[in-house]
Design a protein that fits this description.
Blueprint: H1 2-34, H2 43-75, H3 81-92, H4 107-135, H5 137-144
Helix pairs in contact: 1-2, 1-4, 2-3, 2-4
């Protein structure tokens, strides 16, 4: 059980750091390239900023899912790469079909990915709300109607 919890804590730290770095890079890029769009009334450039932001957030989550997939391959050599990634995606997103499982010795570690995924998806949602608010995209649209 200690190995499960130790690996779970390590992966949580790694993924939180990856997420922090990812969102920081996205923010820096957005400030440099898209800062001029926040005051415009044309929603097309703002929609582009949102799409780029969502795609970048999706890429950050993908890296985190792959990190967990690699960890699952290390602890359960019976898994194929495809099964490890599939298990990671369904666990990270809390979908949880249950058709692919880790060996019983590592169930606790696998389950903790869901907590990390929930936290990081929530963080991404809050970040996206902040970006949308900074663009004033929805407020300006409503003001014009």
């Amino acid at each position: 059980m200690f190995a499960n919890l130790a690996l779970a804590a390590l992966m949580a730290i790694v993924c939180v750091l990856l997420h922090f770095v990812g969102l920081t890079l996205i923010s820096g890029y957005a400030r440099r390239h898209f800062g001029r769009y926040h005051a415009r009334h044309d929603l097309r450039p703002q929609a582009f900023v949102i799409l780029v932001t969502v795609a970048a957030i999706f890429a950050v989550h993908t890296v985190e899912i792959w990190a967990y997939g690699a960890a699952f391959l290390l602890v359960d050599p019976a898994l194929s790469l495809a099964d490890a990634l599939y298990f990671s995606i369904e666990t990270y997103t809390t979908l949880g079909y249950g058709d692919v499982l880790l060996s019983p010795d590592w169930h606790l570690f696998g389950a903790t990915e869901a907590m990390v995924g929930l936290l990081l998806i929530g963080w991404s949602t809050a970040y996206l709300v902040a970006v949308s608010g900074r663009l004033h995209a929805f407020a300006e649209q409503n003001a014009e109607e």
